[in-house]
């Protein structure tokens, strides 16, 4: 069973203490209300001002967007914008799932354990399953953080077949660096969507979309009727059992094909079992660096 308390690791800075303060808010409901606001379609002249202000404040690169700024009717439409064709190149069999900061990509510790921040680890089995009762045999994990200015669609890091999609309820803590340093097991506390994939090169992998404070909604084109942090979910326990979303049959997917959309900034964690790790040959990265969706993350001979 997941522990959704607000116990913190040592918080040396003001930002970490501010994160702690969010524990006293109804994070999911506040995020839900913000989601309503960014989906409001205002009169055209007000909407144009909001859109321009949003782009300016968060420094969005609209030159690579699918449509011109004036055609977006809500702030959320801008935030979830698609890219124009040929804006990203898929470079190899194992690629970044999103634009953002590649925080870490390395072999899992024993017991399917990952490093969240200095002195803080978490269970990849709990991240994927919603509990620690079974060990998924994780051998590698890759974490990408999406800042508010980033393109916010998530794509498959490899070719394969999506065999399942799991929704795991939880809180909506922020997932920025101060929060990651302050909240033990943060990714396992937050709401998430987990895509289970049989990798084309062999083995099993999981693409985990981790929800975050502010809007908090996640969607997937593979189950278009489903949305996280919806009104109906405001009344369920953060400890509710995981829900398996219905797929009529496994869905074939190529590296770079879209899996889901974040309605505001968050994090993806890619988890590989031993066979998938051997076939995809991910390279180790322990110094945070900027990445684009489709950028190669495998060892190059």
Structure description:
The chain has two domains: about 20-80, no CATH class; about 100-290, no CATH class. The protein has helices at about 15-20, 25-40, 45-60, 75-80, 125-130, 175-180, 185-190, 275-280, and strands at about 100-105, 115, 120-125, 140-145, 155, 160-170, 190-200, 205-210, 220, 245, 250-255, 260, 265-275, 290. The strands form three sheets. Strands 1, 4, 6, 7, 8, 10, 11, 13 and 14 form a nine-stranded antiparallel beta sheet that branches. Strands 5-12-9 form a three-stranded antiparallel beta sheet, with no helix packed on it. It has a two-stranded antiparallel ribbon with strand order 2-3. The chain is an alpha+beta fold and about 300 residues long.
Task: Give the proportion of residues in helices.
Answer: 10-25%
Number of domains: 2
Number of separate helices: 8
Strand content: 25-35%
What gyration radius follows from the Cα positions, in whole Å? 18 Å
Distance between the termini: 43 Å
Number of strands: 14
Low-confidence regions: 1-11
Secondary structural class: alpha+beta
User: Could you report the average pLDDT, rounded to the nearest whole number?
Assistant: 89
Characterize the overall form.
Answer: globular
Q: Characterize the main sheet.
A: 9 strands, antiparallel
Sketch the topology as an H/E string, one letter per element: HHHHEEEHEEEHHEEEEEEEHE
């Amino acid at each position: 069973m997941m522990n959704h308390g607000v116990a913190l690791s040592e918080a040396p800075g003001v930002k970490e203490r501010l994160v702690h303060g969010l524990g006293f808010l109804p994070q999911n409901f506040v995020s839900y209300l913000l989601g309503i606001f960014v989906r409001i379609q205002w009169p055209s002249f007000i909407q144009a001002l909001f859109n321009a202000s949003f782009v300016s404040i968060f420094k969005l690169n609209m030159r690579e967007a699918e449509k011109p700024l004036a055609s977006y009717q809500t702030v959320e439409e801008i935030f979830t914008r698609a890219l124009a064709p040929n804006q990203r190149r898929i470079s190899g069999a194992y690629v970044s799932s999103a634009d953002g900061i590649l925080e870490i990509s390395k072999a899992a510790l024993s017991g399917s354990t990952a490093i969240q921040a200095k002195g803080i680890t978490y269970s990849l089995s709990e991240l994927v399953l919603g509990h620690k009762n079974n060990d998924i045999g994780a051998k590698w994990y890759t974490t990408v953080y999406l800042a508010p200015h980033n393109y916010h669609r998530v794509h498959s890091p490899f070719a394969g077949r999506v065999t399942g999609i799991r929704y795991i309820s939880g809180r909506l803590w922020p997932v920025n660096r101060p929060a990651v340093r302050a909240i033990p097991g943060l990714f396992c506390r937050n709401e998430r969507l987990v895509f289970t994939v049989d990798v084309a090169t062999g083995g099993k992998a999981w693409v985990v979309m981790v929800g975050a404070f502010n809007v908090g909604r996640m969607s997937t084109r593979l189950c278009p009727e489903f949305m996280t942090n919806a009104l109906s979910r405001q009344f369920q326990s953060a400890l509710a059992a995981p829900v398996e979303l219905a797929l009529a049959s496994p869905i074939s997917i190529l590296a770079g094909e879209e899996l889901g959309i974040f309605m505001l900034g968050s994090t993806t964690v890619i988890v590989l079992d031993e066979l998938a790790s051997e076939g995809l040959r991910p390279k180790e990265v322990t110094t945070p660096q900027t990445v684009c969706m489709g950028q190669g993350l495998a060892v190059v001979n």
